[in-house]
Amino acid sequence: MPYIVTFIRWPGESTAEMIKKGIEVNKKFPPDDSLGETLVPNAINADMDGIKSLNVTLVKEGKLEAIRRRAMAMLNMYLTVPGFKYSIETWATIEEAYSSIGQTPPG
């Protein structure tokens, strides 16, 4: 199954609001391992434009739509934070990418 990759960004001055909102989001959406395996939980980076976060989850069979809906509901809760932006992307695993061209990955 594919990966769900979320990218979020916010200005540094909104960090206190992000932390406060994160506590609220985590209470409403506790971890749900039935949807997928989190491989990269909230890797953080900062640059001159603000703070960035990356999350990567390997989706379990048949759970793609459910995990996308959940991610969107969670991230939409942050939209009240000034300057908050996000994207949710579906990425293929190496096996899926190779099989799309009728091949198997090396190794």
Characterization of this structure:
The protein is an alpha+beta fold and 107 residues long. It has a single domain, classed as Alpha-Beta Plaits. Helices cover 31% and strands 35% of the residues. It has 3 helices and 4 strands; from the N terminus they run βαββαβα. It has helices at 15-28, 64-76, 94-99; strands at 3-10, 36-47, 50-59, 85-91. The chain has a 4-stranded antiparallel β-sheet with strand order 2-3-1-4, with helices on one face. A hairpin with a 2-residue loop joins β2 and β3 (50-59). The longest helix is centred in the first third of the chain and has 14 residues, at 15-28. It starts with a strand and ends in an 8-residue tail after the last helix. The mean pLDDT is 97.
Draw up the topology in text:
Layout: E1 3-10, H1 15-28, E2 36-47, E3 50-59, H2 64-76, E4 85-91, H3 94-99
Antiparallel strand pairs: 1-3, 1-4, 2-3
